[in-house]
Write a structure and sequence with these properties.
Layout (H helix, E strand, L loop, with lengths): L3 E10 L2 E2 L1 H9 L6 E2 L12 E2 L7 H4 L2 H5 L3 H17 L11 E6 L5 H14 L8 H5 L3 H10 L5 E2 L7 H14 L5 E8 L4 H9 L28 E9 H6 L6 E10 L12 H14 L6 E5 L6 H15 L6 E3 L2 H4 L6 H15 L18 E2 L12 E8 L3 E8 L3
Parallel strand pairs: 5-6, 5-7, 10-11, 10-13, 11-12
Antiparallel strand pairs: 1-2, 1-8, 1-9, 3-4, 7-8, 9-14, 13-14
Helix pairs in contact: 4-7, 8-14, 11-12
């Protein structure tokens, strides 16, 4: 079995465009949640979102290519370009048949779907764009990435709601570990901060109705009242260790475990006992060949909903024990919840935490819920020079659980 390392990362998130900005801002506790400006959201009852307001697809992707992509594909391709440039993978050092893509989105081209349905309703079916289908379908982030980089190994998409990004990275890890590829481009993207996206989640009463962006997303807080919808994307370039070393690549970290399970419980609510989430964490730990006590940090799913945070805390305590010193933070207090992209941007931060020896704080928890008894990362305990292993958790509607285990590269 091959060892799998990370040689490139790219990101675009509400609190940082570009992976370096995103990492720096996140470790400084910058909140990227803001008043919704893309449209008038007053009738939805929702005021804030994790909007990206400094993105011009023409700068990286080009005007012609951007016109043929939904916003979610634009986010995906920009982050993939950044990650591949960092990794310096190209046709001179890697054969196209050895490079694959597993990249997903929880919803896909929702902006395009909304625009074209309105156009059909107002102007008739003959006015629907011929690009409607190829722009809106959920596999086209992966397709566009593969076309751009001429990757000829596997190219597929995973849709597991909010676990999409983590499942995509995990399955890409398996492709390399089991010898089917040398390099994999993996991650997730989402662009659902629009009228139908906000209205749909508001109808589920899943979204925070707070009006103060600094106090809208409150993971593990006693007063939490729903998640904040975010948008963006992130990409990891995974690589066979031997291949990376042969070409002199800079190694950022190592993927050492992956666990995925199903709650088989409810279409939107997680199993309140946390059993499925706990099993996924244990599977990732077991594949890594370590014990729970070796894990220093967990990047929690931590959506700031009552059901998720309490269930996830129970799951963590099942695996690590109620008196564990493992430190936990949800970074959704800064970014909001990026749905299918959440696991990807959070994987980037987890790898960065091991690199830096510093953990991202759990921004947004002012009064920790006693029913969420985990050891949250604060300014006082975020230094982690001795951290060698970390987990990143993602749990999605439909009961999808996915967990990645990372190791510090030394």
């Amino acid at each position: 079995m091959a060892r799998v390392v990370i040689t490139g990362m790219g990101a675009i998130a509400p609190n940082g465009n570009g992976v370096r900005n995103f990492i720096d801002n996140s470790f400084n506790g910058k909140v990227g949640i803001k008043k919704i400006s893309k449209f008038d959201a007053s009738e939805t009852g929702i005021t804030v979102a994790g909007e990206i307001d400094d993105f011009d697809p023409q700068e990286v992707i080009g005007k012609k290519a951007a016109r043929r992509m939904d916003l979610y594909s634009q986010y995906a391709l920009q982050s993939a370009i950044e990650a591949m440039e960092m990794a310096d993978v190209n046709e001179n050092n890697t054969h196209p048949e050895d490079i694959g893509v597993i990249y997903g989105s929880g919803i896909g081209g929702l902006t395009t779907i909304q625009e074209q349905i309105i156009k059909m309703h107002e102007k008739g079916p003959k006015r629907v764009s011929p690009m409607f289908v190829p722009m809106s379908i959920a596999n086209m982030a992966a397709g566009n990435i593969s076309i751009h980089f001429n990757t000829q190994n596997i190219c597929t998409s995973i849709v597991t709601a909010c676990a999409t990004g983590t499942n995509s990275i995990g399955e890409a890890f398996r492709q390399i570990k089991e010898g089917r590829a040398k390099v994999m481009i993996a991650g997730g993207s989402e662009a659902s901060v629009n009228e139908i996206g906000i209205a749909g989640f508001a109808a589920l009463t899943a979204l925070s109705t707070a009006t103060d962006p600094q106090k809208a997303s409150l993971p593990f807080d006693k007063e939490r009242r729903g998640f904040v919808l975010g948008e963006g994307g992130a990409t990891l370039v995974l690589e066979d260790l031997e291949h990376a070393q042969q070409r002199g690549a800079k190694i950022l970290g190592e993927v050492v475990g992956y666990g995925t399970t199903s709650d088989a419980y409810h279409i939107t609510s997680p199993d309140p006992t946390g059993a499925g989430a706990a099993k996924a964490m244990q599977l990732a730990i077991d594949e890594a060949g370590i014990a729970p006590g070796d894990v220093s940090y967990i990047n929690a799913h931590g959506t700031a909903t009552h059901a998720n945070d309490e269930g996830e805390a129970k799951a963590i305590n099942k695996v690590f024990g109620e008196d564990s010193n493992v430190r936990v933070s949800s970074t959704k207090g800064m970014t909001g919840h990026l749905l299918g992209a959440a696991g990807a941007i959070e994987a980037v931060l987890t790898v960065a935490a091991l690199q830096k020896g510093k953990l991202p704080m759990n921004i947004g928890c002012f009064n920790q819920d006693p029913n969420c008894s985990v050891n949250l990362v604060t300014e006082k305990n975020q230094n982690a020079l001795d951290a060698h292993y970390a987990l990143s958790n993602s749990f999605g509607f439909g009961g999808h659980n996915a967990v990645l285990a990372f190791k510090k590269w030394e």
